[in-house]
């Protein structure tokens, strides 16, 4: 699990995929002086990020790196 500070507003949007709505939250996470990650969460986890997290929160995330060099969150831990 990696820890970092949220340094952007959390964006929330819906997309339609095969007549299903998919919720997506995105934000930037600073993990060190020289490393800023673009982070995405989907569906229920996206809702949780948008409703419960704020800019400047320090969180731990666990996830996977996608082909666009974004972290797809699988688990969040609040400090």
Describe this structure in words.
With 79 residues, this protein is mainly beta. It has one domain (2-78): OB fold (Dihydrolipoamide Acetyltransferase, E2P) (Beta Barrel), CATH 2.40.50. It has one helix at 43-52; strands at 2-6, 11-17, 20-32, 35-42, 58-65, 70-78. The longest helix has 10 residues, at 43-52.
CATH-level-2 architecture: Beta Barrel
* Low-pLDDT stretches: none
Q: What is the helical fraction, as a range of percent?
A: 10-25%
DSSP strand content: over 45%
The secondary-structure element order is EEEEHEE
Backbone shape: globular
CATH superfamily: Nucleic acid-binding proteins
| Overall structural domain count | 1
As laid out across the biggest beta sheet, the strand order is 1-3-4-6-5
Q: According to CATH, what is the class?
A: Mainly Beta
CATH topology: OB fold (Dihydrolipoamide Acetyltransferase, E2P)
Termini Cα gap: 12 Å
> How many β-strands, per DSSP?
6
Averaged pLDDT:
94
Précis, in short:
13% of the residues lie in helices and 63% in strands.
Set down the secondary structure blueprint.
Layout lengths: L1 E5 L4 E7 L2 E13 L2 E8 H10 L5 E8 L4 E9 L1
Parallel strand pairs: 4-6
Antiparallel strand pairs: 1-3, 1-5, 2-3, 3-4, 5-6
Top keywords for this entry?
79 residues, OB fold (Dihydrolipoamide Acetyltransferase, E2P), 5-stranded mixed β-barrel, 1 helix, globular
